């Protein structure tokens, strides 16, 4: 039976990398009934909203979405599409595997994961100007939010065969808020004795990511630290063209690349689809399609190791469709 998955092509290079990813999933032998819904700039022009309600309802109904980058129109009082989707569907866990592909950046061989809390912290949007010239941002930390993200990280580690979770915090300075998050994570850790536990202050974690990233295993951390460390991670493994991501809640999950719509190269046919393809690998594993996920991942590794077919962002000359064709051929090659 085919999976029913909501597909949001998005803006800029979105439709190009989305089409490529559909081909790859199909080459891996997974039947999907893609339910296409549009969001973004063009939709805002037509409907007045970049994220119409039916799109949110469709994600909620199918519980799984694959999403291209969506640009939030500037001005007009639009809320960020990505933030709205995360908050409305309570997609509290942002998961970013940071993994080197062979030959892309030989200085590093990284294999770690960042699990970022997606709904609280300084990103809860509680900001005010308390006096002229004095602004205040409130960092919101709750026991419920801190516990469920820690629980998610430990379960993720177990499910994906990872032996260590590192709690990243700044509880030495923010004793009350980060102190609460740290306490919650430690309590959760007690219930997972088979997973090795690490704790690290966020500044030390930044240095460790650059010097010895694989020591960290799965990082679990609050919103702002996770945001910054994720981009550091993307930089470590060769940039935006390859880093995948997922936003996961109890009722729905949205899989998307870390990069934006890249308007400078949109429509030219040379965007790198690897980031969204790797997001689709996460999606397939989320659905329990481990064989298909493994096949795509192996094919990507083989293709990058051979080094013949590369898109321009990584110094090659291949177009999006050249790359996709080579990847599909590798996936379909009898082993
Ligand atoms: P947005 O406003 O939607 O976030 P942006 O201008 O910030 O878009 P990003 O997509 O975030 O653009 O990335 C910045 C730059 O990195 C792009 O302009 C593009 O040159 C490059 N880039 C990003 N993603 C890819 C990709 N998949 N393939 C090739 N180059 C990419
Ligand atoms: Mg951007």
UniProtKB/TrEMBL annotation:
The keyword Oxidoreductase applies. Gene3D superfamilies: Isopropylmalate Dehydrogenase. InterPro entries: IsoCit/isopropylmalate_DH_CS, IsoPropMal-DH-like_dom. Residues 4-327 form the Isopropylmalate dehydrogenase-like domain. It is an enzyme of class 1 (oxidoreductase). Pfam families: Iso_dh. Its EC number is 1.1.1.85. Keywords: Oxidoreductase. The keyword Hydrolase does not apply. One of its GO terms (molecular function) is isocitrate dehydrogenase (NAD+) activity. One of its GO terms (biological process) is tricarboxylic acid cycle. Belongs to the isocitrate and isopropylmalate dehydrogenases family. This is 3-isopropylmalate dehydrogenase.
